[in-house]
Design brief:
Radius of gyration: 56 Å
Strand content: under 5%
Number of strands: 0
């Protein structure tokens, strides 16, 4: 049996040629054994029908085994030749035949240096794609944040529009002047609160420094 690795043929046929040859060999052997058993049974029946036969069943079986060994030796010699011709002419793929997935390699052949260059370019493109993907994610996050800021800004503008409307209804047309008046009023209130707080603290200090008056206690008569 040939031990030559026929990888391309195995890929093409989807089975190894050696396995195919082995199955053919086993099939021939099984058929040969079955035929010899049939012949042995026929000979035994003929001998049983003959009167005065001195040949026993053991002798017939011994002769059958000798004949089987002789046939096996001749068959193995013939099968080796048949195997070589089958592997060479039937189960081999000519050098000009390519699989469909290998035709692209024949059409776009390249050297080892070109392959390494293409591999480097591929890795560079992969890094660029990854960087662009990360940048896209950052931009989307920033866009979402801008949408939230815009929504808050629209709420603020709506609030200012309502405030301006209230100012106009109360006779104050300029919203800027209204804010200025509110700011001044707030400052005045803060100053008044500070002034009251200081007076309150001063009163506490003055009250603590006064001499306490002791009431006179009348003596009993």
């Amino acid at each position: 049996m040939s031990v030559h690795a026929m990888c391309y043929e195995s890929q093409f046929f989807e089975f190894t040629p050696q396995t195919c040859i082995l199955r053919v060999y086993i099939a021939f052997q099984d058929y040969l054994f079955e035929m010899l058993l049939v012949v042995e049974k026929v000979i035994m029946k003929k001998l049983e029908s003959m009167e005065g036969s001195k040949i026993s069943h053991f002798q017939i079986r011994e002769s059958t085994e000798k004949y089987l060994n002789f046939i096996k030796e001749r068959f193995n010699i013939l099968f080796q030749k048949m195997e070589s011709w089958l592997l060479k002419l039937v189960l081999s793929i000519p050098s000009n035949v390519l699989l469909l997935e290998d035709k692209v390699h024949a059409q776009y052949s390249y050297s080892k240096e070109e392959f390494e260059h293409l591999q480097t370019e591929t890795e560079t493109l992969q890094k660029k794609c990854k960087a662009e993907s990360l940048a896209k994610q950052r931009l989307l996050a920033e866009l979402e944040e801008q949408k939230q800021v815009q929504a808050e800004l629209e709420k603020t503008l709506t609030w200012f529009d309502g405030l301006d409307k209230i100012c106009r209804e109360h006779g104050n047309i300029d919203l800027k002047e209204s804010f200025g008046f509110m700011t001044q009023t707030s400052r005045k209130l803060q100053d008044k609160v500070k002034e009251i707080d200081m007076k309150h603290k001063k009163l506490k200090v003055d009250g603590s420094t006064l001499t306490p008056i002791c009431p006179r206690i009348r003596k009993p008569k």
